[in-house]
Structure formats: C-alpha cells, structure tokens
Amino acid sequence: MGSPSDLIPSMIKTHAETIGFTVDSCSSYSTHFYPSNILIDDPSDSKSRWTTQNPESQHWILLRLDKLAVLQCITFGKFHNTHPCNMKEFKVYIGLTSENMTEILHSSLKNNSSRETFSLRHQNSSGLYFPTRFIKIEPLSGYGERFNISIWHVAIMGIVNEASVEEVKNEYNEFRETRVMHHILKHLRQRRLLSPYNIILSRSGTQLEHPLVTELYNNIVLRSDWIECEKLLGDISTAGLFDQFFKSSRPVASWQEIRDTDANGEYPSARGGHAMCIDPQREYIYLFGGWDGQKSLDDFWRYDIRERRWVLLSANTSLILNAPGPRSCHKMAYDSVTNSIYVLGRLDDLDRPTQSGPGGIIPRDHRPSTADQTPTISSRPIPLSEFYRYHCEDNKWEHLDIGVTGPRPIFDHQMVIDSDAQILYVFGGRTAEGNFEPSGLYNYHIHTKKWTLLQPRNKPIPSRFGHSMVLEPTTHQLYIFAGELEKDEKVLSDMHVYDIATNTATEIFSDFTSARGPQPCFTQRAVIDPTLQEIYILGGLMRDRETMCDSAPWLYRYHPRPGVWEKIQSTEDTHREQSQSIPSSRFAHQMVYEPISKMVYLHGGTVLTANAKQRDTIDGHPEEDPLRRLSDFWKMKLKRLTSDEVIRRSAYLIRQQRFKEMCGTQPAVQSLIYLQNQVSEVVNHDDPDETQLFRSLLTHLLVHSSPISPPSPSSGHNDLASSSLMVSPDSSPIKVDRLELLSTDPGSLLATPPPTAAPTWSEPGKEVNQAQAPQSDKLQAGEDPFERMLHLTEESVSDECFAQRTKTFEAILEFVNANAKQPAGSLLDLVDVDVDLV
Fold it and tell me: What are the Polar residues biased-composition ranges (predicted)?
C-alpha cells in the first residue's frame, strides 16, 4: 500500500494565483441583484451583490473556473457597512463536474465590512491533492430574519499552473481508479465470490491490503486456523499496523511532581507570567523571569532532563551586557538550528496595584496584565526594543533591534519559531505604552533580521491577549485560539488557523465550547505534537475572573478538520483523596513539550487565594494577597492503549468465533472447558461490558444443545490450551465502536431457534451491517472453488458461518491502519438510490 507522501506532487512549491471564473447558474435572484455582480468588488455600491429571491428556499450559486485548478482559499468581500442581508452561515462544494460535488468548507461570515478569507481543503484523507472545475456556494442563513441573503463579492485563489495541475489530475484519477477497484474487491470477497476476486487481484496488479492482513483473513475466514490467527496478531502489531488506532484512542494523564534542585539545593522560586522553552535534542528546559507577587524577576535557569538537575545560569541578567532586565508576560522560543533562544516583550513592575475589587480580584483599571494580575506599566521610559537573543553555546546575550516594521513593545502575546525556515511568528498581546492597544500578526526573518506585518490587528483574526498559539510544522499553519479581547473584555472560545503559504486565516470554531471543548478562557497554555496531530491545553482563567479552569488537561485532535475535543482524565481521578498527585488548577503558568519522550512539563503559575487559603497560611493567618504564585514543577505523560491490549481484544474476538463454532460441532463439555479457560483468560473481567458478553456466550451451548459427556483423553484439550495468550493483568479495557460482536443480547440468543445445519453461527438479535459484512442473500452462492484449496477439513462452510467469520475479521480491522486494509463503507452506498424502476 502506497503512503500518502508518495502521492503528493511537486505542485506544493507552486505559488497560488487569483483564479478567474464565471457564474454558471444559481437557484434564484432578485431583480437588479444579478449573480454576476459577485465578480465586481465595490463595497460602496449597495446593488453590487447577488441576492436570493425567496428567504425560505434553499439557495446556491454555481461557479465555473476558467481553468482546472487546485483551490487553496476563497475570499468574500462585503458592503462598507453592516447589512441585514449579509450571508452568515454557508457551505462550499467543489467538483470536476457540476453533478458530483464534495463539501470542503462549512463556516460563517461576520456581519461587518471586513473581507474574510477562508482556506479551502484541497487534500483528501490520504493526503492526495485534488483538482476542481466547479465551485458551489450554498448560503444557509443570513443576519436579518426573513431578509433575502446576499453575497457581495467572491475571489478565489489556487494553483493554475498547467503542468502542476495536470500532474495532480493524473494522480487523482489514478487514485480514484484504485479506490473503485478496492471497493469492488471488497464487495466480491464479502459475498464469497473468491475466484473472480483473485482473478481481478492478479490482473489489476493492485494491492487491497497489507500482506499480513490478507494472511489474517485467510486464516480466520477460509482456513479457520485459530492458533495461527493469534500468532499473526503479534506480527501485525510489530509491523506497526495498529499504530493509528493507538494514536486515536483516548489517553489518560499520569502526573509526577519533580522535586529536583541545583547543586546548592536551590530551584526556581514561585512565580507566574514567566517564560519557558525547550531544547529537545539536548533535553534542556530554559526558564526566565516572571512575577513573584512583589517584583519582576530576571533569574535565568536551565533544567537538565537527563541529569534531573537545575542549573542557575544567571541570578540577575540585568547585570549582564546586552541581556534583558526583570520582566514578566514575555515570551521565549528556542531555535534548534542555531542553538539559541529568542526573548520578546516585557511588562515593567515599578508600580504594583494595591486595591482589590469585588471577589478579591484586582479591578481592570489596576490590571494591565490579566495574564498574571502582574505589575502595572512603569512611568519609566520603555526601550523601543525588548528583543533579545541568547547564544546557548557561548552563554552570551545579544540585544536585537526591532526597527520600525516590527511590533511595538508588547506583553501577553504569543511567539513561535519555524527553525527550518528560520522565521519567528508573533501574534497578539498588548502594547506596553499608551492605552495598551492590541497587536497584530508579525514574522521575523532571522537571516535578514527583518520584521513584516502579515495581518493587521483585528483583520481577519481578532487581536487578543492571554491566548494560545502553536505552529504545525508539517502543514505550515498557526493555530490561534482563546484569550481575551481588550475592547470588549470578552473571553473567547474561538479557534483560527493561519496558513503561512497563502497568508490566509480560517475560523474553524467560533465557539469550541459548544463543540464539546473547554470553557472560554485566557492565560491557558498549549503545546502541540505534530506526529500525533494533537494539541494539549491546560489551565486558564474563566470569564468571571474568579474561577480557574479545571486542572484536567484537554486534548484537541486537529485532523481531519474541524477536529475533535476530548477532556483528558488523570489516573488519580478515581482516587480524589490523593489530590497532591496532580497539579492544582492555575493560570499564567508555563508548559513545554518534549516530542521524543512525549512528555509535557509544567511549571509555576498563579492560583486564586480562595483556593490557596485552604492549603497555605502565613503564621496561621490566611494570606491577604488575592493571588498566590506557585513554584511546583510537574511532568505529564499521556498513557495510551498498548499493543498487548489490542492483541488481547483481537484474540477475544477470535476465540468468541471459535467457541461459537465448537458449540455446533463438538461435545458441550469440551466447548464449556474452552469457554472457561481459553476464552476467559482474554476477557477483562473488570470491564462490565466484556464480562456481560462473556457470560452471554454460555447461551450458545443451550442453542446448540448437545449431550454433555466427559471428555476423552484424546478430546484435543491440550490443543486448545496451546492457543493460550498471555495477558498483562493491568490491561485496561478499550471501547470499540461498531463492533457488533460485542453487543449480543443473551435473551435474544435464548429465543433464537437452533440452526438447521452446522456450522451456521450468526449473531442473533443484531442485524448485520451491509457495509461491514454480507447478508446470506442470493448473491452468496455457497462455497467458491478457491476455498477448497485452503480448507484444512473436508467439511464445507455454510454461508452464515462464512458471513460470521467475515464479521470477526472486519471487527479486528477496526484496529488496523486505514492504509493497510480494505476501504471503509460499502459499494452498495455508491449506487444512486433514485433509480428509474420503470
């Protein structure tokens, strides 16, 4: 099976261009508001728009591109003022023909005058680029109730280079041919038409699945060689064919507090609003600055992960030439190419707020940095450049010039680095002067030492502070989410993706809380694992400023879009009395991620005194400070499903099928012994679902009633024992969707009449899904001649038994990587249901 990377052509290096198009057709239009008006970008003309005719009807407009292209983004122009006819929610479809189109975008526009650009999906789930000729825009709702919906202007960008697009088209057509052939092969094999299946497989030269998966099919469905099946499970796991399932399984967080010190027994003091970065190659974590509740800090530390030792690099960087002074709410980024660290931003601390507002929270007028409730802006002049570079090898600092094109002195921003491209990206935050105005999106080219403004503030991503931003290095995209708006004092739960190549931003969540994500928050922290395609989020302060987010971390799987949110439970959640084994809720902390060991490191932060008073007092009296800073240091490992657990569950499926077949062919006592020993040992008896299913298997003995007689010495019991599988006693259960074998109703089994022929075992009370396994219908014509060559016995297998074995095989396929198995779905679903029967 070819990898997705084999299918990616060289066109990814081709620059996007504006693509010309014409309006092919539309659902309707109002007088004077013709569909062709969307070709004209005139925000001042109230008639320069396409407007639908009936607000109650379904609407669409179909565009035909001048050239075949690979789309990358679409831009919607607007009227110069808000308008009740403005389109709100919409969908975008593309296709090579107007009759067969695929949805690639579902989003919404804001009711303002700003143009909005959206990245368009132009790769399928296999990583293959696809071309298009037609675009359909489907307005779903407008901003004015009972108003006709309007689209003012549309612009499209993508790849139109003829050679590149032709390469994409050829690759895509080849992919479609292969995928259709795979569906045909799957359909034939499910329906026991093995002779034509093997002929097509041989002549087409295609490969339906990994050879180990084919061998598993032969041993389960055709040979019923159960012992060999279980041996193959280990080979399949070793080949990495279960890896995708491991990654998609829900992890559990395991926390451990780190109590290491330096040679003098010292470690970084309590603080919030500090900065951290990590050197994953040398396994160093760097920590600098922060606010301890009284003053800003300028101590600089390094933690050696291998040696488990802190090292104080500098107690006061302000005493070092060209080094930064005390600060908080700044950011650091480590450059792996040059082995250096970049520091940007600063909040001064000469004036500290002394008053508290309702609820013990400092009023907003006294809080320039909600990121840590840290010090106010000093009246002392702030340098024009708070930008530094630390050379790790030489232990030297360098003061860098921002110039007129870079951001003004800022704090509460976010900064990431693309080391391969040698570019820094900075977004958001507030200027440390004047009225704390929000900042936009900038990049800094390390080689040329030049700053560039990529996106001005609030266009298209609303400027914010206390937010999160991570870089996805594979797709070269920035994920920006949450934080607070300075103007509205609104805490956000949105997420935007900025595509670096096209300089476009797409809002993928306007409210991720409604998508089962975390509550709106700010000063939370986030790290990314590009290999697993996951973002981990922890902590933060909620919109009432008096509530901290739960200490449980969140996981966001960002592929495929729009992604899935999951709250990560900790291993200690079942033992809440051991609360000291997990970090407390906090905000303004710092997190870094070590990608090799896949370990999250957490340090410090701030907690509300309401929580702190329960644990800490000064001389027996509660602390008066409404906030308390932390000095604790933690590491978190996400424990995921192991290969042993997947092998165990697969073996359970295999032994279930073997037991069911034994019930119809062998003495009941021998089947019972197999159930009590071989099946029982692969059951997780701590899982109620597995235990209930295990007990229900006993009813098969009642359905296939055979006289119970003691086994003879040659009954083959030793052979059954030889298929024993060692299982770790601490194996945890896994939940698998669509495993129909794990949902048998024992009552329905008892109510099912015994089969008329043996072996014919099906799952009573559960309808077989056509997409997973075939029914015993007219298309199944009994044993295929090809089967006879693989049979270990002379006995023919019934259609029902064949279907049941196929279900067992396809249940195990749920664990197998998508590129190593037959395609999902059914060929029947590809047939149009609106067939003319006359």
Answer: 370-379
